[in-house]
Amino acid sequence: MTERLDGPQAPSQDGAPSPRADTPKKFRLGPSPAIAIVFLLPAAILLGIWVVYPIVYSIFRSLFDASGSVFVGVENFTTIFTDRGTLVTIRNNLIWVIVAPILVTVLGLLFAVLTERIKWSTAFKLIVFMPMAVSLMAAGVIFRLVYEQDPDKGLANAVLTTVNDTFSSSQGYPDARPREGDASPVAAKDGGVATKQPAQAGQPVLIPLVGIKANTMPTNAAPALANPPPGGLSGTVWFDFTPGGQGTSGAVDPQEKGLPGMTVEAVKDGQVAATTTTAANGTFRFDGLAAGSYEVRLPQTNFTAPYRGLNWLGEALITPAIIGAFIWVWAGFAMVLISAGLAAIPRDSLEAARIDGATEWQVFRKITIPLLSPVLLVVFVTMIINTLKVFDLVFIIAPASVQPQSNVIALEMWRVSFGGGNNQGLGSALAVFLLILVLPFMIMNVRRFRREER
User: Fold this and answer.
1) Which residue ranges does the record annotate as region Disordered (predicted)?
2) pLDDT tens for residues 210-243?
3) Is 69 left (phi over 0), alpha (psi -120 to 50) or beta?
4) What angle do CA 86, 89, 95 make, to 5 degrees?
5) Staple partner for 179: which of 184, 287, 324, 441, CB 3.0–4.6 Å?
6) pLDDT of residue 59
7) Exposed/middle/buried for 311, CB within 10 Å: 0-12, 13-18, 19+?
8) pLDDT score for 200
9) How far is CA 387 from the centre of its chain?
10) Model-level pTM greater than 0.70?
11) What H or E segment, with its residue span, contains residue 40?
């Protein structure tokens, strides 16, 4: 009869059951708990000093007034939701959280998908990712220069004015005006300048203007020509001013320059019969006009200020401008993460969909996006956390005059505590409020990491 190996064991002589011969011994992988504690202790101490203690102290300090000696309870938190300036700060943070993460994620996705179809994808990724090597403070300095109002200094307005000047041939002279008095052949009319007497072909029309600043005079302005070429209705528009006061009023002197790019109209019976533009020496000529008398007019468009771009650092555009700088910095980060996710997608799934007749848009929308959803969620949540704690870009780019309109919670926390407010009670309350806003997204990330480990 065969004895069962898994049956009860016979007791030993002292009455205790003898151990099974086939029971495997348990071995612990890695270091013992004591050694693990020794190695983790320095990190735990630093974590407590730099993270846990500041959080606990900030919560404690938020319950006291500015001096830290009077207990005020939740009064500081009440101030956050009742002060008008702080409400603007919360509104700006809400705009950041809604706009910036979506744009960064979408741009990163587009860059990642498109770079798979070009040969020089590595170079493109390097260029897009390069801003990540720049600190946010340095990026703020760069974009402060980019957004300068003067097109000669700011890149953004230099591009806008160049495009505008390409399609607009008129030169603005906002300070130009005719001389006052009956002796002047022209006078202001309807915001422009017009001749006092009717003009006819063969009689040169002289239109002198004054009041033009040196920085308004175009560089291509040539010496004015007193006698324009004959033929048709012609004349000269010039800057009637000679340095030193040696010139003759109403006459073209040798040192006086013409005003190029001015729009000139020939008006008859209240209707514009023809339009032309002055040359570099200020001369103009109308060809093909019917015989008769005409009023020569410089319309109001000549006296409007030239296009100087947008006021990026003004109250209306400051927040979108800073968000643009944020996107420039983080779009490369999103592109690299999403590109790694694209590389992990099984190509047979995409090819199978194409064989079944799916278009590229259908493949992208119904296969690529669902398979990339975990990576997209990582990028999106990370961008939300970064936007909630954004500080450097707003502090550097926004001028002091518009910082109240572009303020965010992190900057307001510093400004209230150390930037002149000297109210660390309210500053600590803002820090706790910011921590409360960030915690849900951090918990979401931790749970996602645990699910992936399982």
Assistant:
1) 1-23, 167-186
2) 988 877 788 888 999 888 777 788 999 999 988 7
3) alpha
4) 150
5) 184
6) 94
7) middle
8) 84
9) 14
10) yes
11) helix 33-47
Instruction: Quote the CA–CA distance of 190 and 113 in Å, as a whole number.
Output: 56
C-alpha span between 230 and 233 (Å, rounded): 8
Residue with tokens 């011969």: 21
Pairwise CA distance, residues 353 & 364, whole Å: 10
Nearest to 405 by CA among 89, 81, 82, 84: 89
Would you give the distance in Å from CA 48 to the centre of its chain? Answer: 37
Res 243: pLDDT: 79
CATH architecture of 83-155+312-422: Orthogonal Bundle (1.10)
The DSSP output letter for 80 is H
Sheet with strand 192-195: strands edge to edge: 186-189, 192-195, 295-298, 263-268, 271-277
Q: Each residue of 265-320: pLDDT tens digit? A: 999 988 999 999 999 999 999 888 888 889 999 998 888 887 888 999 999 999 99
Give the DSSP H/E element, type plus range, for residue 286. Answer: strand 283-286
pLDDT below 50 — which residues of the chain?
1-7
Q: What are the backbone angles phi and psi of residue 85, rounded to the nearest 5°?
A: -65, -40
Residue type, 94: L
Contact 65, 425 (CB under 8 A): yes
**Three-state SS at 112:** helix
Of 143, 100, 191, give the one whose Cα is nearest residue 396.
Answer: 143
Residue 202 has a pLDDT of 78
- 272: how many CB neighbours lie within 10 A of its CB? 12
For 282-423, where are the alpha helices, taking DSSP H only?
A: 318-343, 347-355, 360-363, 369-388, 392-397, 403-406, 409-417
pLDDT given at position 319: 95
Query: Which amino acid appears at position 433 of this protein?
Result: F
Residue 222, CB-side half-sphere exposure with 13 Å CA sphere: 10
Going by C-alpha positions, the residue among 385, 345, 382 that lies closest to residue 366 is: 345
Q: Which two structure tokens, joined as six digits, stand for 357? A: 């007749």
A 10 A CB-CB count for 166 gives 8
Alpha carbons within 13 angstroms on the beta-carbon side of residue 48 total 6
